[in-house]
Design a protein that fits this description.
Blueprint (H helix, E strand, L loop, with lengths): L1 H13 L7 H20 L11 E2 L3 E2 L3 E2 L6 E2 L13 H20 L3 H12 L7 E2 L4 E2 L21 H9 L5 H9 L6 E3 L2 E3 L8 H5 L11 H21 L9 E2 L6 E2 L18 E2 L1 H5 L7 H14 L4 E2 L5 E2 L3 E2 L16 H16 L1 H6 L3 H10 L3
Antiparallel strand pairs: 1-2, 3-4, 5-6, 7-8, 9-10, 11-14, 12-13
Helix pairs in contact: 1-2, 1-3, 1-11, 2-4, 3-4, 3-5, 5-6, 5-13
Length: about 375
Amino acid sequence: MGLYMLSWLGAYEMHRPWSPSWTQVEAELSSILDQLRAWQSDTQTDRPHGPNAYKQSVFYQWYWISWNPPVVGADAPNSTNHTIPSLDNAWLAASLIVLREYSQANGHSALAQKADAILKDMDMMLFYHPDTYRFSWGAHEDPQGGGAIEFFSDETRIINFVARSLGQLSPGEFRQSLAALVQKSGTYKGITVAKVASDGSLFTYLAPALFIREVDTNYGTTTISPAIHAQIAYAQDKGYPAWGLSDCFGVGADGYVQQGALPTANPSTPETRPGLVTPHASALALISPLAAEAITNLQTLKDTFPNSYDSTDGFGFYDSIMLKRDDPQHGVASERFSALAQEWLFLAIANAKTRFIHSYFYRNVAVQQAHEEMYPN
């Protein structure tokens, strides 16, 4: 929902013929913020499956729009409705910081106040273990569950950054929380990635950089750019005509699968379905020094595999496409459009064009301080 709100702002900031008016943007954002606050404050009377937020603070994994008003799903066996995800809450908080700062800078005080009220009640420390300095992934009705986050380059470093930006981690705790994460190097075809991700998923390197100005830091130079180069080299070695190996939905109606490329922190094969690529992962490279390569890659996918892109209804790229030539499903695309993947893709374009996310995120003094502590000169 945070990325959805930023997509409205990004569309407005693009100033294209198709861009929404501010009246449309304001109405949409205000409605979403009101819904989030109603869940969080437990003031929504419709709560058939219990409170719609955890301890009037952070949010659950899934909400169901088929209900009016929307509510958290039922707590059924094997459901993930009542999972409390640390990462999703961190992305929402980062998005709310951008929205609040944008609204304050542009004289939209009502939106700024609504975003601020939600942020003030979001406690990232619910996921934090002070004895190990690590955050949890989150589990069923348990923000401390789900296992500890382990790797720096698994995109979860965003929660460390957000917790510090909200003043919930002290400088010392922030430093220790980063030091507690695994930061090992890996090499593929002579390309060294200073801090590899656990499974080599391209998204994990690039997603936080949509908010944090990492590309121009030492991390960007020694990890983000080499990871993209390694992805390209890996795809070429495998004979794939394009790259973008990252977690996504499989071809046809297949479910969600793990995808990545070497080097990885874990010794197992990085591809669950060899040859499966997702356009949104390579689109995130638009904010990197390899933007030209990212554009060429997306164009290759669209031109070589027209069925990977919906031109009729304007939905854009399907979630994945199979590029392994000897795979029986070679050239078959996913039947799914993932709203989340489309948001990442669109925001990468918008940020590459306008830098609006970086500009407003860093308008916040606490964000600037967290950056200086995380990536000192």
